[in-house]
Specification:
The chain is α/β, with parallel strands linked by helices. It contains eight helices and eleven strands. The chain has a six-stranded mixed β-sheet with strand order 4-5-6-7-9-8. Strands 3-2-1-10-11 form a five-stranded mixed β-sheet, covered by helices on one side. Helix 2 packs parallel to helix 4.
């Protein structure tokens, strides 16, 4: 069985390089990788969680993928928890509803070829929203749903903070809920924890499970700021080959345009529209 993880597509109704790169990667996924399932681990839209135009443009572009597709939200899609959310966008019930209305449920299980593939919304944890409690209730049912199958678990932010995490930038699931989450997932035979958010490809290990950070399909980060750290800074997708074990591969195509968000006219226009200063 093959699963492809895409992440941080940052698609815009204004078009631009992120959209063009995604079109090429979608064709590559369809023609070369031919997965049984594609999982998008968030930041579907370019920047603004309140832009219906960006959601609709993203929905149309995601329709280029011929394999079954599941989509999870990132902080640019629904906001995020904490006292200092990026650009002031806190996760809200309205933003979650707007996302799920276009992309489907923000937490789900797929049972494929002897595996359980699990996705959940990392951006509502530690928010106190009613959607968070509903998700906790659902998380408590996962061991029964997996029924002993090995599992791959996906969300936007990593469970464990990278070495580059600072007090000002939220790069992982809040520590206040992490222990509860791990207890809830402990009965499941998890082989992979897959996330995005950092715009780089990186593979590590936690216990018996692999931890995989997927790269962006839109923008690379090659600076010394909070998103710096180990890993491969190149656009692409992650392929998982699931048999007796799980093998992980970085995949890209040479025709993609590599560049940072600040080189994107669409990113800068969106930031200006919502009043966010993104210039260094």
């Amino acid at each position: 069985m093959r699963i492809v993880q895409i992440s941080d597509t940052h698609l815009s109704h204004r078009g631009g390089v992120g959209n063009r790169n995604f079109e090429e990667l979608a064709a590559f996924i369809n023609d070369q990788l031919r997965p049984d399932l594609v999982v998008h681990t968030g930041d579907v839209s370019i920047l603004d969680p309140d832009s219906g135009d960006d959601r609709q443009a993203a929905r149309e572009l995601l329709g280029l993928i011929s394999a079954p597709l599941r989509v999870l939200p990132g902080n640019h899609d629904v906001g995020e928890p904490g006292d200092k959310p990026w650009a002031g966008f806190s996760a809200t019930s309205d933003r979650v509803a707007a996302f799920t209305g276009v992309f489907g449920s923000d937490h789900w299980v797929e049972l494929l070829d002897g595996y359980a593939v699990i996705g959940f919304n990392s951006e509502i944890l530690a928010t106190g929203l009613p959607e968070e409690q509903a998700q906790w209730d659902w998380l408590g049912t996962l061991a029964g749903q997996a029924a002993g199958r090995p599992a791959l678990v996906f969300c936007h932010k990593a469970l464990w903070p990278p070495a580059s995490e600072s007090a000002d930038v939220a790069l992982s699931i809040p520590g206040s809920v992490l222990e509860r989450l791990l207890r809830t997932l402990d009965p499941i035979d998890i082989r992979v924890y897959g996330s995005g958010h950092l715009h780089r490809f990186e593979v590590g290990r936690h216990g018996d499970a692999l931890t995989v950070c997927a790269p962006s399909t839109a923008f690379v980060t090659r600076t010394g700021d909070d998103l710096a750290g180990p890993g491969l800074r190149q656009l692409g997708v992650v392929e998982y080959r699931c048999g007796p074990g799980v093998e992980v591969f970085f995949r890209s195509v040479p025709t993609l345009t590599e560049g940072g968000a600040l080189a994107s006219e669409q990113f800068l226009a969106t930031a200006a529209e919502i009043g966010v200063n993104v210039m260094p």
